[in-house]
Write a structure and sequence with these properties.
Blueprint (H helix, E strand, L loop, with lengths): L3 E3 L8 H10 L4 E8 L7 H7 L15 E6 L3 H14 L4 E5 L4 H5 L10 H15 L5 E6 L8 H10 L4 E5 L13 H10 L4 E4 L5 H11 L4 E3 L1 H5 L3 H6 L8 H18 L2 H15 L4 H10 L5 H7 L2
């Protein structure tokens, strides 16, 4: 059966949101926000901070596996940290060759590595050697940095170096998150390499999901912002016979999210964390937009919870 994977969205898809979204159903695998690697072996606390699920067998409370993603440009250090992530309980390793953030690219991480396919291949090969032949290794890339000229070179380098799977966000770094996503390029990449390719980009509805699979030819799809805006998206894809979530269905999920934020997030950041998700939900649910307008002036979490419509 095809898989639906939750994308690694920095500053958004933390363990709290992963818990909420996997509760709704339909998601088969989550990938963490990236663990930034320089030239050092990181202490376990760094992995536990970004992936508290490691304390629970590497799974969300709903039982969905959570794979750690690493970002960096130092092949040996990435290999050592991949070993540590597996030792701590991550069900596999994912490598980030797609982050478009300027701060990340300035430090020679993420999408900027796509300018150098040989380095991309060296990183994957070093991680594969470090973790052994039996551990699961995936990588996520965009179609390129400024253009798509090296898309096939990068995909081939990743496959030849020993990755089990490649996720392709079907846009370049320069294209950012602007539509469209070039799903046809995923089909081109699939025809050029022997490992499975997961499609990612611009899936906002079950109709988008099916078109993405048709155009790309990929069995598996990674969902990003679409499932954050519409938490029942994966569930609706899996179970089209079920009714879409209403605000009444969503409200208990938001309250549970608030409870987790109150426990886990420092007080000075709690209100912003709630407002962030409500603002995104407001793009699909008018009630969330109304709620955001009501609570945006509040700075204390209890005031926000008491004011939710």
């Amino acid at each position: 059966m095809s898989r639906i994977i939750l994308a690694p969205m920095e500053g958004l898809a933390d363990n709290i949101l992963r818990d909420c979204l996997t509760q709704v159903g339909g998601i088969d695998l989550c990938v963490t926000e990236f663990v930034r690697v320089t030239d050092q072996l990181l202490p376990p606390r760094v992995f536990y901070r970004l992936c508290p699920e490691l304390h629970e067998g590497g799974k969300t409370p709903s039982g969905v596996p959570v794979r750690i993603q690493l970002l960096g440009n130092h092949p040996q250090a990435l290999g050592l940290n991949a070993q540590r992530a597996l030792e701590l309980g991550s069900p596999g390793i994912d490598l980030n060759f797609g982050c478009p953030a300027k701060t990340v690219n300035r430090s020679q991480g993420g999408a900027i590595l796509l300018k150098n396919p040989s380095l991309v291949g060296e990183i994957v090969a070093n991680v594969r050697e470090a973790i052994g032949a039996d551990a699961w290794l995936s990588a996520k890339m965009r179609l390129g940095y400024e253009d798509k000229n090296l898309a096939l070179d990068n995909a081939q380098a990743i496959a030849d170096a020993g990755a089990n799977e490649l996720v392709v966000h079907a846009r370049t770094k320069i294209e950012g998150y602007r539509p469209p996503a070039h799903w046809q390029w995923i089909a081109i990449i699939r025809s050029a390499i022997a490992i499975p390719v997961v499609a990612n980009g611009e899936v906002w509805s079950p109709e988008d999901y099916h078109r993405c699979r048709q155009v790309s030819g990929s069995d598996d799809v990674m969902l990003g912002r679409g499932v954050v805006w519409r938490p029942d998206l994966a569930r609706s894809i899996r179970h089209p016979e079920l009714p879409d979530y209403t605000w009444d269905d969503l409200r208990p999920l938001i309250l549970a999210f608030c409870e987790r934020v109150a426990i886990q997030v420092p007080e000075r950041f709690q209100a912003a964390r709630i407002k962030q998700w409500l603002a995104l939900l407001g793009r699909v649910y008018p009630q969330a937009q109304t709620a955001f307008m009501i609570i945006k002036r509040y700075r204390q979490l209890p005031d926000i919870v008491n004011s939710l419509p």
